[in-house]
Amino acid sequence: MSDQEIPMPTGPDGEPMTEEQLAAAYEEQIKQLRVEDVLLQTVVSLLNLGGRKAGLVPGTEDERDLDQLALTIEGVHRLLPLVQEVLGPDAAQLNEAVSQLRLAYVQLGGTPPEGDAGPDPAPPESGPPAGGRLWVPGQ
Q1: From CA 106, how far away is CA 47, in angstroms rounded?
Q2: Which residue of 21, 54, 60, 124 pairs with 104 in a disulfide if CB–CB is 3.0 to 4.6 A?
């Protein structure tokens, strides 16, 4: 434990808030909170944690954990549709971030779940890929 004390929040008069005042302030914040805000914050937190579990953040290479990364990707995959409409065009940034995590997962040796094409799968192209070879990420 640290020797530093955590300062008590103060009211408008500069005096420390009572327990009742703290509870009332907390209650007021909860009233203003929207579920979409919590879902979005959860998605962003998962993406940030996923970057660490993929070792994408400099200095976190020793934190790589494919199981945790897979769970992150699955969680974001399920939550993202719930906030995409609220985000509108800004959802593209989150889709890009989860795509980067998926790519890292495959490059680290993970196998994507069957039928998992990412957040916004492109329509299938007609005919075989150019050169008759299948495109594999990272190769």
Answers
A1: 16
A2: 54
- Residue 115: the pLDDT is 52
Examine the pLDDT at 28 and tell me if it is beyond 50.
yes
- Residues 77 and 119: beta-carbon distance below 8 Å: yes
3-state secondary structure of 64: coil
Among the ranges 15-24, 35-44, 122-131, which has the highest mean pLDDT value? 35-44
Using the predicted structure, report yes or no on whether residue 81 has a pLDDT greater than 60.
yes
d(CA 102, CA 52): 13
- Give the Cα separation of 127 and 21 in Å (integer): 67
Each domain of the chain, given as residue ranges in start order, spans 31-114+128-132
User: How many helices (H) does the chain have, and how many strands (E)?
Assistant: 4, 0
Query: What is the distance between the alpha carbons of residues 6 and 3, in angstroms, rounded to a whole number?
Result: 10
